[in-house]
Amino acid sequence: xxxVELFNDHFQNYKTYGIPKAQLIxxxxxxxxxxxxxxxxxxxYIDGDNSNGESELAGKEFFDTDxxxxxxxxxxxxxxxxxxxxxxxxxxxxxxxxxxxxQQFELIQKAKEYGLSNYIxxxxxxxxxxxxxxxxxxxxxxxEYGVLLYRDKLPKFNNGGRMVFNCFDYPRDTxxxxxxxxxxxxxxxxxxIELFTDAGDTVIDPCAGxxxxxxxxxxxxRKAYGFEIKKKFYADxxxxxxxxxxxxxxx
Length: 251
What we know:
CATH architecture: 3-Layer(aba) Sandwich
Radius of gyration: 18 Å
Structural class: alpha/beta
Largest sheet: 8 strands, mixed
Strand content: 15-25%
Number of strands: 8
Low-confidence stretches: 247-251
Mean pLDDT: 86
Shape: globular
Strand order of the largest sheet: 1-8-7-2-3-5-4-6
């Protein structure tokens, strides 16, 4: 078993791979926003410029599998693959889920059925907005949303005794090739991983997409495992991870 590995499979088949349980699970789950998924993305237009007219992505959905995503199956996986809550304080695991604004409430309620009875809402604030189709509005969205879920004890937290606000700045990632429409920033993921895990801990991403969670975890000295069912994203993500990984990770 490698310290960092991405599987071209559904997370439901996790038992096949015998991966270790995680201190932290990070996932950007499908939003299921339908055929206008690119409505808040410059890709709706040719070369991102509305003066060029609509691109082939206009009126399309991100993934044909979004509608098949089941939050209950996802939460079942997470409840099984988080390490057990230890007796001592300050060592407990948690999970962070990036999600559509209204999905937070469904996640919070259903997570209680799987023992994840506590939560902290998260906001990720960008200094830019992709909502080109709403440019005529006075207010456009520049935030992404998420929720941190945990069992009973507060999660492991590394910030030198200092508090952290639940609204995080979302740093641009200009170094990592963009291969996925909802790709997350590696610097943001590194910040979250460093807060809630120690070096050598395991991080799992059940919906790995571009593989940036695994890349961020590896660069922070953590073990990381992910699942991605789409063959092209899996292949492209593996290329990026392999190109950035230090040889010692694969020894």
